[in-house]
Amino acid sequence: MPFPALADQVPEPASHRLPQHVPLAAQTRDGLVESIHYGSLIATAEEGAGTRTLLTAGDPLAPFYPRSALKPLQAVALVRAGLDLPADLLALTAASHSGAPQHVDGVRRILKMHGLTPDVLGNSSDLPYGTAEREEWLCAGRTATQLTQNCSGKHASMAATCVINGWPVTGYLDPDHPLQRLVARSVAELTAEQPSGLSTDGCGTPLFALTLRGMARAFGVIARAAAEAEGAAGTPAAEAAVGLAMQRHPDMVAGEHRDVTEFMRLIPGAVAKDGFQGVQLIGLPDGRAVAVKISDGGDSARMPVAVRVLEALGVDTGPLAPIARTAVLGGGRPVGTFQALDFLSTPVNEAL
User: Fold this and answer.
1) What is the pLDDT averaged over residues 293-321?
2) What is the model's pTM?
């Protein structure tokens, strides 16, 4: 079926007002506050056909770019368009992978299954994202490639979906390509909001300006669909298929020693995805969800803040202690902490 041009669906970006972020996390060193990270967050619950707000901090309705946290939503769109992959490769479709051998081999598998070669990939080239994986790659004398770039699983699956539907693979990143129009429509449905702006992600994919509330809703939908489909007969819906794949193969969504992978291993039934510039999304099997944006883009604050929100929701966060609070070292010994503030009830100075 024909799709309207993406330019007709996404309005011109809103004025660049500064979001009203609040302090969410701090680093201390020998009793002194060394740095404070501001941001915004929301927790929601899916109830029937509606979304209820459970708690907020900052400015959760300010438009922002979800970056790679958008990948599970994009994966849902691809499955709706006929993409049919083994669960590990579907998880890789929603991944910001570390560039380990299983990730690179997985991208090659997706391409080969659909008669494609790496030269169809439209993503940028990069070294492996994971620290250990990057060092190993460089020690072997290798350079940046499209296969090792952390979004290559998504791009391989986008090209594969074009083959499945008879769409041209060339130009699949054009916002007016049938594939990207389909993605835009699915994102709007899952978030229950129209994007307020359109840009381009670091890997070259069209990127939408959304709200934390809309993104939280989408993750709640995906996680609840996965929970309802667990053990059920028949082929799961696209939302459930993506959620189940991520839960069953968290190592493909990120990689070893990555907090998103560890989170899904420790919290059964959760769906978690990070995004560049301090974005964290988490969906729970009962339809509740958490969305966090750290204003300075710092990666270290997003997960501790998200865990603090889960604690406020009554989730047992004991297993998450290693990724919720970290020691600040001085001369190799602990001299402070990096942790979320009690931003839900207490002024900053009283929370430390």
Assistant:
1) 95
2) 0.92
